[in-house]
Amino acid sequence: MAEPKVNELMEKVVSLCKRRGFVYQSSEIYGGINGFWDYGPLGAELKRNVKDLWWTSMTRRRDDVVGLEATIIMHPQIWRASGHVDTFSDPMADCLLTRKRFRADQIDPQSGTAYHYSGARDAETGKMVAEAYAVLLPAGKPPESARKVATQYYQARGLKQVELEGERTEKVENSQRFNPENGSLLTEPRPFNLMFKTYVGPVADEDNVAYLRPETAQAIFAQFKNVLETSRQKVPFGIAQVGKAFRNEVTPRNFTFRSREFEQMELEFFIPPDEAVEALTGSVAKPAAPGHPGAPQRNWGWQLWHQYWVEERIRFYDSIGLPRTSLEEYWQKPDELAHYARATVDLLFKFPFGTQELEGIAARSDFDLSQHERCSGKSQGVFDEELRTAWGKLDEATRQRLSDSYFQHRQKYLLKAGVPAEQAARDAKEDAEGLAKGQYIPHVIEPSAGVDRLILGLLTNAYSEVTTTDDKGKTETRVILRFHPKVAPIKVGVFPLLKNKPELVAKAREVNELLRAHMMSFYDDAGAIGRRYARQDEAGTPFCVTIDFDTLGETPELKDTVTLRYRDDGRQERMPISALLGFLLERIR
């Protein structure tokens, strides 16, 4: 099997997505809009399959996770409490010549000679523009290249016959201050908030500002108490949500990997703090070895819960066709962690454009619920009668140790949140005393995955090419998408051997009706049977069924049987129609 070169694979996948109806550029007939993508017939099925599989694995097959579907626009104070209004930004720099905007931290370092100018004068009018400017040239490029760019810069400021002033040169190493496309100097980096702003109501003023949500997580935190009280759940338990999110990315790139409108699949799994766990069970279990720790236990602390969800997520990817060997675990270093996180693992996949994140699994401590409690004035704590009883049975030394530990944790959070030291100490003392009453604010483990990134990963992982040569020496290269049957958009293709034989067509239609009630099937009678197989291979269909004359009884012992073809190896076998549905269902679920 021939594998496409890495630097060609992305172009081939993008072309296939357009050609076969997986992904289209949004608003294409008007020239498109950067960072937005539409999913065509096959893409919509693929995406729905992935979301349904995630939802089923997270909620329907678990007793300790329930679902939520929240609005895209929420009260703007939610985003102030979460820090998105003040800190959800990227450092941006603009090209002084073209005004093109760049993520300052993603500009490739450049080296060369920088040509500095103190200003320029118009040779005809004597008008002076006293603005400093610079152009970076890589080694080997003539000075005239820098002067040409500088001339364009000053012409844009009203000079016609430009005479450059004060030219000087400087050797530059690994600089990110210049436009990598034309060498022009960039502005100083400045923060650029990524949230889309809108207005609620008829008046577009600051009193009515709202935001399109940049993530689905905060809605879960904001509805935590409602879900807890109505779902008959008890900590530890989780709330799952699949939904749209929006980020005003300045430089969307790599097809659907980084876009401005996307979907997330997020779980917030709420657990007791370790102090409560120890009071309840007598000890806090911690990881003893890498790998899956097994079924959850009452004495698990946050570290074991974090390890458990990392392994659960890897198992999910393996179940839909991305094996563990295709993923990398990146454990963020202490200086890379968000200030509230105790640990974060990024699950990475090797895309054609580089190894990038598919999902992050973060141990977020009790930061989120604490923030919403502090900013809303509404309690986000839980009451555990069992904890109150267990606390009363502890010896004094253990009570004091656990209380001190909880006090220190709460005080640390409050100080980071900007609460004055004296008040932070009082509030933390009150929180620590709450343990004796069975009260605490839950901690959170958050697996957060991007649907669109996963779809792109599945597409690139499934893409393969097969080159065959027929008896006449003619060579043909075919594309096969080797999707796992669970995620494949079309599960089975159904074909009559010939479309001009009414009895074959009628039987094929009958078989298709049998299957389509249970799975996505596709009836096709156009062209040679080999071409029909090839079309389904390119769509990623794992099975094809052909109705021929033996199905009708031409060979009596084969009556009411069909030819079942396997996508990945082209193997064929006869199967009774009566066994077909059960056989396929077993393999696509």
What's the end-to-end separation, in Å? 28 Å
CATH superfamily of the largest domain, by name, is Bira Bifunctional Protein, Domain 2
The top-level CATH class of the largest domain is Alpha Beta
Q: Order of strands across the widest beta sheet?
A: 3-15-16-22-19-18-17
Helix percent reads 25-40%
The CATH topology of the largest domain comes to BirA Bifunctional Protein, domain 2
Structural class determined from secondary elements? alpha+beta
Mean pLDDT: 95
Give an overview of the whole structure.
With 589 residues, the protein is an alpha+beta fold. The chain folds into three domains: 6-86 and 200-381 and 441-454, Bira Bifunctional Protein, Domain 2 (BirA Bifunctional Protein, domain 2), CATH 3.30.930; 93-191, no CATH class; 490-588, Anticodon-binding domain (Rossmann fold, 3-Layer(aba) Sandwich), CATH 3.40.50. Helices cover 34% and strands 26% of the residues. The chain has 17 helices and 29 strands. It has a seven-stranded mixed β-sheet, with helices on both faces. α2 crosses α14 and α12 runs antiparallel to α13. The longest helix is centred in the last third of the chain and has 21 residues, at 396-416. The radius of gyration is 30 Å and the shape is flat. It starts with 5 loop residues before the first helix and ends with a helix. 35% of the residues are buried. The model has no long low-confidence stretch (mean pLDDT 95).
